[in-house]
Amino acid sequence: MDRKLLLIILDGVPYGNWRRYFGCLEGWVASGEARVWKMRASLPSMSGPCYASIHTGVPPQVHGVLSNGHIHRVDMPDIFSETRKAGGVTGAVTHSWWSEFFNRAPFDYVRDIEYDEPESTSINHGRFHTMTGYDHKNQATPSDVDLFATLTSLCARFSLDYGILHTCTLDSMGHRFGHDCTEMDHACALLDAMLAKFLPAWRQMGYEVIVTADHGQSLRGHHGGTGEDQQDFALYYFGQAEGPSKDALLDQRQLAPTVLSRLGAAVPETMKHESFLT
Ligand SMILES: [Zn+2]
After folding, report:
1. E strands along 130-230, which residues?
2. Which of 121, 158, 201, 263 has the greatest number of beta carbons closer than 10 A?
3. What does the longest C-alpha to C-alpha distance in the chain come to?
4. What is the pLDDT at residue 63?
5. How far, in Å, is the centroid of ligand 1 from the Cα of 171?
6. Cα-to-centroid distance, 276 and ligand 1 (Å)
7. In the predicted model, what is the mean pLDDT of residues 252-267?
8. C-alpha 57 – ligand 1 centre gap (Å)
9. What residues sit around ligand 1, an ion, with C-beta below 5 angstroms?
């Protein structure tokens, strides 16, 4: 592998919230350590379809995850499979759907809650949570500090070449409270601060880091449809590559070929979009 990279997905954070409330990330943009662009989600701008598009680089109409009711193993090349083919070690600290899409489904609570499988053709080191029982009043989300610490531990113990972390905290907060409220102000600031506690260590360990979302949310806390509020989010990049001009609008389907290019893995035929980093 040419380089190591961590992809951090904060679920359901609209563009404006990133730019207004994530003061630590914005501070690194101001100091020149990070760059930020706007990215647009695939349609439907729903979590499951977007996770599959993030990792396969194709739209839901091609990978087949057309709603959150279509959770199955995705039969297409993705970042995990192509990183493994190139000899890289992969890890995931995410919602269990990522394991189902890219490794095996259905999710078995005991077998799949954590696994270390050095010979796997997809995820070598997985640590998952299911949010079972999630509803409007009970988020059933882990603390983000616990997730960030788990990813850091996997990087140190298993020398991951590619690691993904995904957390639903802010998506759940948005569904619960909407966005024009003190609860969301605080939740964004808290997550920004938690992330800032770990991000310098990842850079010191030699990782490039991308921090982004899977989709946005409307002021009422909805997503799935069209429009800048539901589809658009920020993407922060920490690394040495060159990117497009700061007003470029990136496409979510560019993310998978971009990550593979940075790692030094071959981009499969199925990924038709160009890497946005060179
Ligand atoms: Zn989502």
Report:
1. 162-167, 207-212
2. 263
3. 47
4. 98
5. 6
6. 22
7. 98
8. 16
9. 11-12, 47, 171, 214
Integer Cα distance of 264 and 38 in angstroms: 24
Q: Is the pLDDT of residue 158 over 90?
A: yes
**Which pLDDT score, from 0 to 100, does residue 256 have?**
98
Q: Which tens digit of pLDDT belongs to each residue from 76-126?
A: 999 999 999 999 999 999 999 999 999 999 999 999 999 999 999 999 999
Ligand 1 mean position to 11 CA, how many Å?
Answer: 5
Cα 226 to ligand 1 centre (Å):
14
Mean pLDDT of 241-253: 97
Residue listed under structure tokens 């310098």: 200
Q: How far is the CA of 217 from the centre of ligand 1 (A)?
A: 9
Identity (one letter) of the amino acid at 123?
A: I
Q: Checking DSSP bridges between strand 35-40 and strand 232-238, what pairing results, if any? A: antiparallel
Centroid of ligand 1 to alpha carbon of 163 (angstroms): 19
Query: Token pair 């499969």 is at which residue?
Result: 268
Question: What pLDDT sits at residue 70?
Answer: 86
Token output for 255 = 């993310």
Task: Please tell me the pTM assigned to this model.
Answer: 0.98
